[in-house]
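Worked example 3. Consider a protein that binds glutathione.
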Amino acid sequence: MAPYGTLYTWPGNPRILKSLIAAKMNNLEIVLPEFKFGKDNIDPAWISKFPMAKVPALETHTEPPVYIAESAAIAHYLADVGPAREQLLGATPAERGRIQQWIFHAEEEVMPHVFTGLRPKLGRAVYDAELEAKALSSLERIVKVMEKQLEKSMWLADTEGFSMADLSVAGCLNSGFKLWLNKEWRDKYPKLMEWYNRLSEDANVKEVYGEQVLLE
Ligand SMILES: N[C@@H](CCC(=O)N[C@@H](CS)C(=O)NCC(=O)O)C(=O)O
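Given these inputs, the predicted complex is written out as structure tokens:
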């Protein structure tokens, strides 16, 4: 089968995990070309398709092509165009509403704090203990809500199988668990970790996450 689309990004970008899993669940092949961040994303021809000049960015191989930026929008689109649509995006208005809620939580309450923790580890910022403490305390607020939710349901949006709610939040935590949030931190949240491991056992998730060595 011909590839469905091209996803432009830098290698290892945690923002693309949810999209790659959604694509696999919908049997869509996605090409990840070599992309030189700082060079290719300022090329005028590329910017004419993606005016914000940010990655990730999706170009479909459909006629006409569809151009989408913003990782949550890309994930939504790839979830929406195949048979896993209802599982990933919800089967009822209530499910869809709850899933959207968690997608916004992932974007607003999880990802920014995880990136604050990761930047110094990736050599992209100087370590600042005060900033890190703030990020940890903000992250704890949402993680405590998750812990409570996961005492009541297997999946964050209380759906039968995992949904884009789970993929969005777990995609943010994935790099955090490898580089920033150590075992002592993770041990405080047993339901969160059970949920993360349950999700990681799925064949498509496993394939995209690869081998996971979490920080000791
Ligand atoms: N909310 C966006 C954030 C995208 C973003 O900030 N991408 C960074 C790389 S991780 C970027 O392209 N920055 C280039 C710039 O700010 O000019 C998303 O989730 O896709």
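Take a moment to read the result before moving on. Residues 90-203 form a domain with the Glutathione S-transferase Yfyf (Class Pi); Chain A, domain 2 fold (CATH 1.20.1050.10). Residues 13, 15, 53-56, 70-71 surround glutathione (CB under 6 Å).
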